[in-house]
Write a structure and sequence with these properties.
Blueprint (H helix, E strand, L loop, with lengths): L13 H10 L9 E5 L5 H7 L4 E6 L2 H13 L5 E4 L11 E6 L27 H9 L4 E12 L4 H11 L1 E12 L2 H5 L1 H6 L9 E11 L1
Parallel strand pairs: 1-2, 1-4, 2-3, 4-5
Antiparallel strand pairs: 5-7, 6-7
Helix pairs in contact: 1-2, 4-5
């Protein structure tokens, strides 16, 4: 089926598809409240909406939100879109499920130019957005609510689990897949080595889905 991806919007790639597999295992019923943080083209938001969820999609990009909204309409679903940073546009609301494919690539001092880089650049350790998601998610979840995040093993999966646990969620790695670096990580491999983020010669990573349940 046709998918709208307006200029400058991060198109769904292997990490999004990997997270979609875990999303498909979650219990979603008619009226479940789902939040998609950093929606991009809305692939995750649409997948939840077609299962009957009431979905809110958040992104800092107007073009991304327009893409997500159009992709929802193409599948006969209306997605509520909100522009802003992480949870700021939905303060005061609670959700049964939060999903996110956040930026998680360690950012070199000389990132490649282009408006799409904000879709993956996440500070020197790749954790600028992940840390905030981990710390802030609990207060946005309904009782027994679930958080699903996808990230690279390069961005410190144990830290994600530790932060979730300390924030009051029960973390678990529910999916892991080994693969070669994508183009951005390949271009930064020597910088990653020099800064101790990968061992010398490493050119592959795990994609990991972490699930946290509100305790």
């Amino acid at each position: 089926m046709l998918t709208v991806c307006l200029p400058g919007v991060y198109a769904a790639r292997s990490d999004t598809r990997f997270l979609l597999e875990s999303l498909s295992c979650e219990h979603i019923s008619a009226g479940s409240k789902v939040l998609d943080i950093g929606t991009g083209t809305g692939a995750l938001a649409v997948a939840a909406a077609v299962r009957g969820a009431a979905v809110t999609a958040v992104d800092v990009s107007r073009m991304a939100l327009a893409s997500a909204f159009c992709n929802g309409l193409l599948r006969g679903r209306r997605i509520r879109i909100r522009r802003g940073d992480l949870f700021s546009p939905v303060r005061g609301h609670r959700f049964d499920l939060i999903v996110s494919n956040p930026p998680y690539v360690p950012e070199s001092p000389f990132p490649a130019p282009g408006s799409q880089s904000r879709a993956w650049d996440a500070g020197p350790a790749g954790r600028e957005v992940l840390d905030r998601l981990c710390v802030q998610s609990r207060r946005m979840l309904a009782p027994d609510g679930v958080l699903l995040i996808v990230q690279s093993s390069v961005a410190d999966v144990p830290k994600t689990c530790d932060l979730l646990r300390r924030s009051g969620l029960r973390p678990e790695v529910v999916a892991r897949a080994r693969g070669r670096f994508g183009p951005v990580m390949r271009e930064r491999a020597l910088w990653l080595e020099q800064n101790g983020l990968i061992t010398a010669g490493t050119r592959d990573e795990d994609l990991v889905v972490v699930r946290g349940v509100r305790a």
